């Protein structure tokens, strides 16, 4: 019943790290960001406004596994809309029980923005994964290029910075490290180095 919380800003590498840790430790994995992205996508496709609490909350309650399995949840417009719906308290409340139930069933690794501060403040291990805005923008640009979405680096930097600002300044569950979270800066780390560092921390903290 180990709970590992991995938080951090967009494109810091927390998703890649979380999935790899989950596979190695044989734990279920939940990308909680997909819940907000899928909620945002439902609102956008219905012609609604992601900042409208009623539309966003209704979309959150109607969410299904089909929504979170979509392959088009990481485009720039959905990313910004996800940050907007995530700032709405009723949306976060709608998705809170799902996340806690998922983790409490058999233990899990969850990554997101508020796992260690709100969803599982009692997590066995809390990691806060970050990197410079420029490094994260370059990673996101490569990801978007691979999907045929070609943006300039300046455009991606602006998008990442705007998302950071929205996540940091929202009134509900802002993006901040838990007091007992261990910081991992991946600016100058490749995926293997970040994984080795995180795995060592997890083994020490969880006595694995």
Automatic annotation (TrEMBL):
One of its GO terms (cellular component) is cytoplasm. Residues 4-203 form the Cytidylate kinase domain. It holds the Pfam family Cytidylate_kin. The keyword Transferase applies. Its EC number is 2.7.4.25. It catalyses: dCMP + ATP = dCDP + ADP; CMP + ATP = CDP + ADP. GO terms for molecular function: ATP binding; CMP kinase activity; dCMP kinase activity. One of its GO terms (biological process) is pyrimidine nucleotide metabolic process. It is an enzyme of class 2 (transferase). It is found in: Cytoplasm. Keywords: ATP-binding, Cytoplasm, Kinase, Nucleotide-binding, Transferase. ATP binds at residues 8-16. The keyword Mitochondrion does not apply. NCBIfam families: cmk. Belongs to the cytidylate kinase family. Type 1 subfamily. This is Cytidylate kinase. The gene is cmk.
């Amino acid at each position: 019943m180990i709970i590992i919380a991995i938080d951090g800003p967009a494109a810091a590498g927390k998703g890649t790290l979380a999935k790899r840790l989950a596979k190695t430790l044989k734990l279920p994995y939940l990308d909680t960001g997909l819940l907000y992205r899928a909620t945002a996508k439902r609102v956008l496709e219905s012609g609604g406004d992601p900042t409208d609490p009623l539309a966003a909350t209704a979309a959150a309650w109607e969410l299904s596994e089909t929504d979170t399995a979509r392959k088009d949840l990481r485009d720039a417009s959905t990313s910004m809309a996800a940050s907007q719906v995530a700032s709405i308290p009723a949306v976060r409340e709608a998705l809170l029980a799902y996340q806690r139930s998922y983790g409490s069933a058999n233990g899990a690794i969850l990554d997101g923005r508020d796992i260690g501060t709100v969803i599982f403040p009692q997590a066995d291990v809390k990691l806060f994964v970050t990197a410079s805005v420029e490094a994260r923008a370059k990673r996101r640009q490569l990801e978007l290029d691979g999907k045929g979405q070609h943006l300039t680096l300046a455009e991606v930097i602006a998008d990442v910075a705007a998302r950071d600002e929205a996540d940091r300044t929202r009134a509900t569950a802002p993006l901040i490290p838990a007091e007992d979270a261990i910081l991992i800066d991946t600016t100058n780390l490749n995926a293997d180095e970040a994984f080795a560092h995180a795995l060592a921390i997890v083994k020490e903290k969880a006595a694995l």
